[in-house]
Description:
Blueprint: H1 4-8, H2 17-34, E1 40-47, H3 48-52, H4 58-66, H5 79-85, E2 89-94, E3 104-111, E4 116-125, E5 128-134, E6 137-141, E7 147-153, H6 158-168, E8 173-180, E9 189-196, H7 202-209, E10 214-220
Parallel strand pairs: 1-2
Antiparallel strand pairs: 1-3, 3-4, 4-5, 5-6, 7-9, 7-10, 8-9
Amino acid sequence: MATLFDIIGPVMIGPSSSHTAGACRIGKLAKNILGEDVREAKIYLHGSFALTWKGHGTDKAILAGLLGFDTDDPRLRDSYDIAYKSNLKYEFIPTKLREAFHPNTLYIEAKGDNNEINILASSIGGGLIVLDKVNGIEVHYKGDFPTIAIVNKDVPGIIAKVTSIIFENGINIENMNVTPQFEGPNKGYAIIVIGMTDVISEEIENKIRNIENIRDFVFLDKLY
């Protein structure tokens, strides 16, 4: 069943919900995951993004997102000038991404003063996005629920320990996906992605991080 959002799309600076609003949201998501101001960014554009990124304003939208602007922020049109004044160094690289899940896909490497991250994300229409990977971790996050992604040794008991901490703090789990890794750099590990009804506190996050055999932890807040 279509929602009103599906019909009218997001409040945005145009011209295209997929190439502008979605691109802006991907850029802002990269900034949020980085957790600080973006100082340097390499932006790899795949599919139709690689073909129309200048004509559809995708470049301006991505920079606006990296600067922390929302899709309806009028400063989006001036994002090149604002990026220059903010000393944000960037490079746009049209390419073909082997791991792309959608024709409108971006791979962004972002660096701040203290951290660096990479994300693979797609703009799927109507301003909606899917975050496919964070630092190589498959999350397939759609932004509809606060979400955690965990990489842990594939040993018994991890799921029970994580979910117990969540439940004990009065938070319901909306969805969960567990993917054992049988090859590649995460061989012998599993990736657990959990969507929840509420944002977890720093205390809960630290409890989960400190569970034995958990290697990586990423928190993703609700987007919409």
